[in-house]
Description:
- This is Methyltransferase type 11 domain-containing protein.
- This protein has helices at residues 31-37, 40-46, 52-59, 79-82, 96-100, 119-125, 146-156, 177-187, 196-199, 231-239, 242-249, 257-267; strands at 8-9, 67-71, 88-93, 108-112, 134-138, 163-168, 173-174, 210-211, 221-230, 273-286.
- The chain is of the alpha/beta class and 291 residues long.
- Strands 1, 2, 3, 4, 5, 6, 7, 8, 9 and 10 form a 10-stranded mixed beta sheet that branches.
- The structure holds S-adenosylmethionine (SAM).
Amino acid sequence: MCLPNNLKDLHTQQPEELRFGSCLLHRGPDWMAGLFSKQAAVYAAARPVYPKDLFTKLAALTAHHRLAWDVGTGNGQAAIGVAEHYNSVLATDVSKEQLVHAVPHSKVRYLHTPNATPGEDLVTMLGGEGSVDLITVAEAMHWFDLPAFYDIARRVLRRPGGVITVWGYNYRISPVEDMMTRFFNTTLPYWDTRARHCMNGYWDLPFPFDDIGLGREGDPANLDMEHDMSFEGLIGMLRSWSVVTMAKQQGVDLLGERMVKELEEEWGGASLVRKVTFKAFLLAGTPRADD
Ligand SMILES: C[S@@+](CC[C@H](N)C(=O)[O-])C[C@H]1O[C@@H](n2cnc3c(N)ncnc32)[C@H](O)[C@@H]1O
């Protein structure tokens, strides 16, 4: 496929060729890419894998299975699940570092979309209007410029039959809710305000699409994600939180020795592996006829 000049195929471009500016899908300048790039290697190892039946459920919602777009793909956590059900997946991210750690898959094409990428180019890259059967945004939606992103989503989704689905998870992890809440409270002064939607479980996330029975604006569906987690895995996951990077940039180590010791005691010891459940939340919809 011939791509617009400023959309760089990760596997053919060198870092010095990557450009940064201010993006339509992006509220800040270079900030977001930097925030997730710094912890990209930790992120790849630490984040939960999404359940297979989630992708089966999502695939059943779309009329066709030609192309999916995973936006804010990170290391491809959602893209590789989606690829089991679609002919091909375009997986895009503003952070080149995140993509460097992405899981390769024969049906997934990872593309770095620098934050200077105009919306028009994104539409062309995706094959034009009405080309995309499923859009997935996993744990990334709250960082986007929502009106700009929704405008592109409405344009590229197939009509009828195209579906957009967004989901997230936060510090609510069972059965260690109390420990997580205590740690979360120490992070409060450092969160970017955009993360508010995620902390609120997407209850207040604007989502102007028609309801298709799997979470809607103001009423997200519950998505329980089970995970076997070691203490090392827990600390790795907390280190991959953007707020930990943000605090560090201000000279504060939220996961200093003392905090790690406290967490270890509450967890039940450094060698304990626990079965935990992330209390995730999800919204799905299809473009409104009059949009
Ligand atoms: C918390 S990570 C989620 C990664 C992955 N989807 C997952 O489920 O683990 C958020 C990702 O969104 C990316 N991101 C943030 N703003 C973006 C934007 N405007 N366009 C594309 N990607 C963006 C970040 O670089 C980061 O990789």
